[in-house]
Amino acid sequence: MRWIGAIGLLVSLLLVLAVVSWLGKARLSSLPAPALPQQQASGAALPGGVNAPQNARQQARNIEQQYQQALDAAIKQHPMPD
Questions:
Q1: Cβ pair 54, 42 in contact under 8 A
Q2: Residue 14 above 60 pLDDT?
Q3: Is the model's pLDDT at 51 over the cut of 90?
Q4: Is the separation of the CB atoms in 9 and 17 below 8 Å?
Q5: Residues 6+ positions from 53 with CB-CB distance below 8 Å
Q6: Is pTM beyond 0.85 here?
Q7: What is the C-alpha separation between 42 and 23, in angstroms, rounded?
Q8: What is the distance, to the nearest Å, from the Cα of residue 66 to the centroid of all Cα atoms in its chain?
Q9: What percent helix, strand, coil does the chain show, rounded to 5?
Q10: How far apart are CA 23 and CA 21, in angstroms?
Q11: Mean pLDDT of the chain
């Protein structure tokens, strides 16, 4: 008898999941699709004269350099007491 209750609970949970998924899909399909930005060719100039990174590794290096520059600037603003 316990198995019948467990199977009933499982079926009801699956039914609830199906209804929620269906409602979510209906709601999302009614929203307009977001406008995607135009992709630029690799190395193309961005606004402000900045060049687009060649690949993910170059982008990671750029982020690392910006982070390091920000840390250096913060350290210079708040020198360590002697």
A1: yes
A2: yes
A3: no
A4: no
A5: 59, 62
A6: no
A7: 41
A8: 20
A9: 60, 0, 35
A10: 5
A11: 79
